[in-house]
Amino acid sequence: MLKLILALSVALLAALPPPEGPEPPMVPPAPPPRETPSDDDKGETDPAYMTLLTDDGTPWGLQPEMAGKLAAVADTYLEYAVRFTCTESVRRAKFSDGEAKKETVKRYGYLLERGDGRAIAEYRQKLRGDGSVTDNAVDDAEAFPPAYAWVFLFERGNQSFFAYRERGDRFEGYDWVRIFEFKGAVPYTDGRDIRQWDGVVLVDATTLTPVEIRAEPSRQAERLKMLFDRWSQSFNIVGFRTGPKPEGFSGRVVFQNRRDKLTFPTELRYTSFRAVSPKRTEPTTASTREYSGYRFFETGTKERPGDVIR
């Protein structure tokens, strides 16, 4: 009899509606297990190794009106190339096993010189402890175009050496920018000419002055793949290839100093890396150049040499 009563009680309880109150939270299903990556796929892909923007099918080419506006901005920058001095702070690091092992720091007095036509050259002088410059010039250039050289990306004389296409607009921090992709037509050699590079430039949507540039040597992905295939087929001694691993490069320039509706370079970062697999790279060296303490001056006949514009 007792067993019968207990069985009826359980049945009645099961038939009752659930008590009122908040529903228990739903537990999301567990994600499916990730496949174990192969040795070649382990780690994140270095963005410098890959194409800077995924091809979305946007046609290449600029509208004539836009090309003219961008060229006019470059003309204005040519006038300002010899109107300023600043301090250049250079930090270099060498990497081993993905970690920085050695770092150096140098500071220079920095200005640009203009030669014949539209050519400009960097001029550096070491700084003393009191901030004054020495008399001797210093040669300390990167295998990358000078930061200021990128303001001439859309110069009329350069437009025939580049393919451009616009990739929309967005907000980058507090800046409303338009995005342009570019491809240089000059084969990569020493890296000092902007026409040897492919990349992306963000320009201020109102003034069309540069805000940020990201670049890699022209057709770098194809070149690295070819060099990696060559390395992987090189002579093997006890599991080690005798040939050097393929080396790649990337650069980034930021323009955050604003004056007279123009932007001026504040940072340049140049990185070299080795491809350790078809999809993974590791850094070998990195250099960061910061530009601060800008002093602008006039170069017209109405101004005295050395007059500083505050």
N-C termini distance: 103 Å
Shape: globular
Low-confidence stretches: 1-50, 300-310
Q: What is the percent of helical residues?
A: 10-25%
Question: Can you tell me about this structure?
Answer:
This protein is an alpha+beta fold and 310 residues long. It has one domain (49-296): outer membrane lipoprotein receptor (LolB), chain A (Clam), CATH 2.50.20. The protein is 15% helix and 42% strand. The protein is built from four helices and 13 strands. It has an eleven-stranded antiparallel beta sheet with strand order 4-3-2-1-13-12-11-8-7-6-5. Strands 9-10 form a two-stranded antiparallel sheet. The longest helix is centred in the first third of the chain and has 17 residues, at 64-80. The chain starts with a helix and ends in a 14-residue tail after the last strand. Residues 1-50 and 300-310 have low confidence and may be disordered.
In a few lines, what is going on in this structure?
The chain is α+β, with helices and mostly antiparallel strands.
For the structure shown, list the relevant keywords:
disordered N terminus, 42% strand, outer membrane lipoprotein receptor (LolB), chain A, two-stranded antiparallel sheet, 310 residues, alpha+beta
Summarize the SSE layout with pairings.
Blueprint: H1 2-15, H2 64-80, E1 84-96, E2 99-114, E3 120-127, E4 133-137, H3 156-159, E5 162-172, E6 175-184, E7 197-204, E8 210-217, H4 220-232, E9 236-237, E10 240-241, E11 247-259, E12 262-277, E13 280-296
Antiparallel strand pairs: 1-2, 1-13, 2-3, 3-4, 5-6, 6-7, 7-8, 8-11, 9-10, 11-12, 12-13
